[in-house]
Design brief:
Blueprint: H1 3-64, H2 70-94, H3 105-111, H4 116-129, H5 133-146, H6 155-161, H7 165-172, H8 176-196, H9 205-208
Protein name: Single-pass membrane and coiled-coil domain-containing protein 1
InterPro entries: DUF4547 (IPR027875)
Pfam family, one: DUF4547
Length: about 210
């Protein structure tokens, strides 16, 4: 074997070693990229969680700081509870086989996270009503904060006491997310009432006057 052949073989072996090292480096860099992307995603998720938590804290503060009278709170509560009931009912209409599994709106909110079928139906229902997740968060917080002491008033009673509830909300609710949620709740109920108005029957006077607390 002459010197040229030996040199050529040595050069090929050296090239193979270099190629192997390059492949190892490439694999290492791919692993580092994966770790970087994973850490970036975790950081973004954590940032979103903190932002959502901060927004919910602000919502709670806003809800608990409302300066409405008990009558005004009752009227707002009536709109809120009616919207939540409508949402629950509409989801069950689309998922009749899951009626027993979804006895409350809270059960829908819990299960939609892991159940794609429920999530898709829930999102379609929100779209039907022109609502977003942020609106539901605001309405649920309002319900939890005031539901234990508020009373439900039917539509005609609400109109007897407050003529322009949209103005009242816009004027007194400063938190934008809460204001948007309440205004949309009013819109949903008033729109539904207008669509079913010809079918409504007149209620006796005793049903129009809310009970007086002692």
């Amino acid at each position: 074997m002459n010197n040229e052949t030996t040199t050529l073989i040595s050069l090929k072996e050296a090239m193979k070693r270099i190629d192997h090292k390059l492949q190892a480096l490439e694999a290492h860099f791919k692993e580092l990229d994966f770790i970087k992307d994973n850490l970036t995603q975790k950081f973004e998720d954590h940032s979103k969680t903190l932002a959502n938590q901060g927004a919910q804290d602000e919502l709670w503060t806003a809800v608990l700081s409302l300066k409405f009278t008990s009558m005004e709170l009752n009227i707002l509560y009536s709109y809120v509870i009616e919207v939540l009931v409508h949402l629950h009912t509409r989801v069950l209409e689309k998922l009749p086989d899951l009626v027993r599994s979804l006895p409350t709106l809270a059960s829908i909110l819990r299960q939609k996270v892991k159940n794609k079928r429920i999530r898709v139906v829930w999102e379609s229902v929100l779209q039907e009503y022109g609502l977003q997740e942020g609106d539901i968060t605001a309405l649920c917080i309002f319900f939890v904060a005031h539901g234990n002491k508020a009373e439900h008033y039917i539509a005609k009673v609400r109109q007897m006491y407050i003529r322009d509830i949209n103005f009242m909300i816009s004027n007194m609710v400063k938190n934008q997310a809460l204001q948007d949620g309440l205004l949309k709740a009013i819109q949903v109920i008033e729109k539904g009432k207008a669509e079913t108005a010809p079918k409504e029957k007149k209620s006796p006077l005793k049903e129009l006057i809310p009970p007086v607390k002692s």
